[in-house]
């Protein structure tokens, strides 16, 4: 039974969504503010988190950063704002998906299923590690390491690194990256991908020997370079 955490200050929406997913046999925990969610996450391990952005006190953007310190569950933001900047901010903070209200509960369910499958897919014993010394990717834990030191990557930064490193020296176009990581691609998504790649490269650049791995292919996309 997949476990789901719903965070929304609108009690009516929270009740409707909770009933819908419980009928689909999800284990559902629902709270009306981010601070209650942070407390709950000390004892509850969700497979996915669905969170409203605009909440009093601590908003979804601030909460996302704190949640990532407690668990690695994928996060879907729900918002009434259809702003590209808001979408980019949410994704760069570590959110995995972004839906604008009003939304279809059926579509939300599908997106949750996709994310849960992605993060719970356990590779075989022979393929759960990608190594390009001194860089190492643990595909089971969804973490990247410099030697034995964990590199602090957001979910999307890790997903991009994993995608590129999985097929080294192959040029992934913006469309391929969007479809692989965000499950869709519009030309307006190129900015989000570029910012995510830039943040990933800056983090890798802080470690000796990692600065050469990600290469920009002008007007096409990115590739992972092995020497």
Description:
- The protein is an alpha/beta fold.
- Helices cover 39% and strands 22% of the residues.
- The protein has 8 helices and 12 strands.
- It has helices at residues 11-23, 34-40, 60-67, 84-92, 105-120, 155-166, 174-181, 190-205, and strands spanning 3-7, 27-31, 48-52, 75-79, 97-100, 129-132, 135-138, 143-146, 149-151, 172-173, 214-217, 221-224.
- The strands form 3 sheets. A 5-stranded parallel β-sheet has the order 2-1-3-4-5, with helices on both faces.
- Strand 7 (135-138) and strand 8 form a beta hairpin.
- It is globular and about 55 Å long.
- Residues 122-126 have low confidence and may be disordered.
Number of strands: 12
Helix content: 25-40%
Q: Tell me the series of helices and strands, N- to C-terminal.
A: EHEHEHEHEHEEEEHEHHEE
Q: Given the structure, what is the number of helices?
A: 8
Profile the largest sheet: 5 strands, parallel
User: What is the 3D form?
Assistant: globular
Mean pLDDT: 86
**Can you tell me the residue ranges where pLDDT is under 50 for at least 5 consecutive residues?**
122-126
Radius of gyration: 18 Å
Distance between the first and last residues' Cα: 44 Å
Structural class: alpha/beta
Strand order of the largest sheet: 2-1-3-4-5
Strand content bin: 15-25%
